[in-house]
Amino acid sequence: MIGHIQGKVLFSDGVETIVLTSSGIGYQVYYNRVLSEGSFQSLFISHQIKEASEQLFGFPNLRDKKMFELLTSVKGVGPKGAFNLLGFLGTENIIESILLENKKTLTKAPGVGPKAAAQIILDLSKKISKIRMYSPSYKLDADNLEELPAFKIGEVEKDFSTSTTHLLMDEALVACKELGFREEQVLPLAQKILNDNEVTKAEQLVHLVLKEI
């Protein structure tokens, strides 16, 4: 079972990420934020194996990984549903919602109805507090990893200038206009995406904007 990988990001679009490890193997991982292509990252992995397929779900810390695996133990909640719920609400909000039996908050996540929310609360109410024992952060040990610089998982240094950001924005706006979208539709979404994600290519930005429109 794969529980953790680290290496160079070859591709990332906010849905999937491909990480090239030092062994030369590139792992395709579901990861719900954009990572800067070319950066070195370290991801905790939940390796989901079924009869006909295998899937890797990536998380920035051990707490999120354990939260995901706890959610997948709930009847009727599959890996994709658990991953979407975690990405939409975050671990702390899920913990509080379960402890307070707040079905309304859980149902805000796409694909989670009242029945599923009630089942999550029923199955996890006595288990959920244990999630807080796991660390919400992680730092690489540079002394043991010569090829990787020390960094906090999920954290990417912003090495591009304001002018580069403006260039990304301009190229994305042009591309979206060519697709028939108005600037006033695209601009606020693009600005929010640039603030919340590490985007280094205009095509990445366009892809994320189109997902939001």
Short overview:
The protein is α+β, with helices and mostly antiparallel strands. It is built from eight helices and five strands; from the N terminus they run βββββαααααααα.
Tell me what you see in this structure.
- The protein has eight helices and five strands.
- By secondary structure, the chain is of the alpha+beta class.
- The protein has three domains: 1-60 and 137-154, Beta Barrel (OB fold (Dihydrolipoamide Acetyltransferase, E2P)), CATH 2.40.50.140; 62-135, 5' to 3' exonuclease, C-terminal subdomain (DNA polymerase, domain 1, Orthogonal Bundle), CATH 1.10.150; 162-212, Helicase, Ruva Protein, domain 3.
- A five-stranded antiparallel β-sheet has the order 3-2-1-4-5, with helices on one face.
- A hairpin with a 5-residue loop joins strand 2 (16-20) and strand 3.
- Helix 1 (62-71) packs across helix 2 (79-89) and helix 6 (162-178) crosses helix 7.
